[in-house]
Design goal:
- By secondary structure, the chain is an alpha+beta fold.
- The chain has one domain: Class II aldolase/adducin N-terminal domain (L-fuculose-1-phosphate Aldolase), CATH 3.40.225.
- Helices cover about 35% and strands about 15% of the residues.
- It has 6 helices and 8 strands; from the N terminus they run αββββαβαβαββαα.
- The protein has an 8-stranded mixed sheet, sandwiched between helices.
- Strand 1 and strand 2 form a beta hairpin.
- The protein is globular, with a radius of gyration of 17 Å.
- The termini are far apart.
Length: about 210
């Protein structure tokens, strides 16, 4: 693989990392981004400030997580590799430590169907995965379980994982999860939110299948 292979996608990953911070859904170097390529994936490097990140510094991994080009990958490379392997519908993953969603994750609470937009994540809840130390296979296993039938989840005492057909879709979902978490926390301060029925959420999920431009 040459240094310029997938250059446009590498640039998009760098731009997305900077946009995550600009949008307020991430801080510092805590989040990470990956995108599927033929024969593996591209992922952000470990511990590099986003302002200093370059397209050439994006790391290429084989499907088993072996580095094929670049330096040290994100410490969370395992769940990126495992999710992309298990989910052919996902072309990209965005992981953030957004403030409100992370606050909910520290309470180890799912986001229930208090608002129909919860269905944007694929079901009638946004689950909170069980806790495990960052960067471990155990965390990856818990994330996969929480993502079963879903496109996004919380990670207990940690943050958010959002998937999408491409990087733009994954980032948009990460922003939506943060918005929903903020709304849910505000509603909880007043009382107990009314939860939409499972039947209604099934209708909304189905409507989302044909939503947007074709």
């Amino acid at each position: 693989m040459t240094k310029t292979a997938h250059l446009a996608l590498r640039r998009q990953i760098v731009d997305t990392c900077r946009r995550m911070n600009a949008l307020g859904v991430n801080q510092g170097t805590s989040g990470n981004v990956s995108a599927r390529i033929r024969g593996g994936l591209l992922i952000t490097p470990s511990g590099v400030p986003y302002d200093a990140m370059t397209p050439e510094g994006i790391v290429a991994l084989a499907p088993d997580g072996t580095v094929t080009q670049g330096g040290k990958p994100s410490s969370e490379w395992r769940f990126h590799v495992d999710i992309l392997a298990a989910r052919p519908d996902a072309g990209a993953i965005v992981h953030t430590h957004s403030i409100h969603a992370t606050a909910l994750s520290c309470l180890r609470r799912d986001i229930p169907a208090f608002h129909y937009m919860v269905a944007a994540a694929g079901g009638d809840t946004i689950r909170c995965a069980r806790y495990a130390t960052f960067g471990t296979q155990e965390l990856s296993d818990h994330a996969l379980a929480a993502l079963d039938g879903r496109r996004a989840c919380l990670l207990a005492n940690h943050g958010v994982i959002a998937t999408g057909r491409d990087i733009a879709a994954a980032l948009a979902l990460a922003v939506e999860v943060e918005t929903l978490a903020h709304q849910y926390l505000l509603a909880l301060q007043v009382g107990k939110p009314t939860i939409l029925s499972a039947a209604e959420m099934r209708r909304v999920v189905e409507k989302f299948r044909s939503y947007g431009p074709r």
